[in-house]
Write a structure and sequence with these properties.
Protein name: ABC transporter
Distance between the termini: 39 Å
Structural class: alpha/beta
GO molecular function, one term: ATP binding
Number of strands: 10
Oligomer: single chain
Strand content: 25-35%
Keywords: ATP-binding, Nucleotide-binding, Transport
Radius of gyration: 18 Å
CATH topology of one domain: Rossmann fold
CATH superfamily of one domain: P-loop containing nucleotide triphosphate hydrolases
Pfam families: ABC_tran
InterPro entries: AAA+_ATPase, ABC_SmlMolc_Importer, ABC_transporter-like_ATP-bd, ABC_transporter-like_CS, P-loop_NTPase
Number of helices: 10
Length: 249
């Protein structure tokens, strides 16, 4: 596989504490990387560093082998990424306009814009909601809009920070299926932060476990789950899929 992103000696220090301390991490094109760890392990900080949204980090960042400044990354590089968070940041406008906004910023022609919006609304099964105002959407509907907007931009890398954690179990399950299909069809590189092992198992092919800002284990998802190292096993053994399912119902 072709290396897409590489970080080296990436650190983030706050109040004398290491929030992040990664000696090296690479992400290959087409890879789906999962990031797990206990609360406060640095998962979201790592995600923001990887998508160039953490200017307080120090270290080296390479995209396709080119060294990129962390404090002032080129706008054109940032536009090759998309991000979806736990709480969708939707504008007070219709679903159609929310999906359109990024495309308009990039001066997408009207015909192409309409085609892309229609395609991705249908892909996430929300075509019937195109005219609905964002403030009237359910949590699952809002996250579908968030993902449709991200994929419409055709990002080279999609960053997901626990996008399903606030959803009930049936809604989450269906949306993950839609996401998996979209990833497979576009071959998009994905980085997913999640507390849910079922999401990680279903979506990712490589997994890293963080603890206190550092990687304690990395490898193929099935291998890490089947054979966790001591520090990783403490976290993984504490995850109960039945409790997770019940908490989301």
């Amino acid at each position: 596989m072709t290396e897409l992103i590489r970080i080296e000696q990436m650190k983030r220090v706050a109040n004398g504490n290491n929030i992040l301390d990664i000696s090296q991490l690479t992400i290959d094109r087409g890879e789906i990387l999962g990031i797990m760890g206990p609360n406060g392990a640095g998962k979201s900080t790592l995600l923001k560093a990887l998508c160039l949204l953490e200017p307080k980090c120090i270290g080296s960042y390479f995209f396709q082998g080119q060294n990129t400044p962390l404090q002032k990354p080129p706008l054109q590089l940032r536009r090759r990424f998309a991000i979806a968070l736990q709480q969708p940041l939707l504008f007070n406008a219709s679903v159609h306009k929310n999906v359109a906004i990024g495309l308009k910023i990039r001066n997408t022609g009207n015909k192409e814009l309409k085609n892309k919006i229609a395609f991705w609304l249908d892909a996430f099964e929300i075509g019937h909601l195109a005219a609905k105002q964002a403030q009237h959407l359910s949590g699952g509907e809002a996250q579908r809009v968030n993902l449709a907007r991200a994929f419409a931009l055709e990002p080279e890398v999609l960053f997901l920070d626990e996008p399903f954690s606030a959803l009930d179990y049936p809604t989450k399950r269906k949306l993950i299926q839609n996401l998996k299909k979209a990833i497979d069809e576009t071959n998009t590189t994905v980085v997913l932060v999640s507390h849910d092992l079922t999401e990680i198992e279903y979506l990712t092919n490589r997994l890293i476990i963080l603890k206190e800002g550092a990687v304690v284990q990395a490898g193929a998802t099935v291998e890490v789950i089947a054979h966790p190292h001591q520090q990783a096993s403490t976290f993984l053994s504490g995850w109960n899929p039945l409790m997770e399912k019940q908490s989301n119902q």
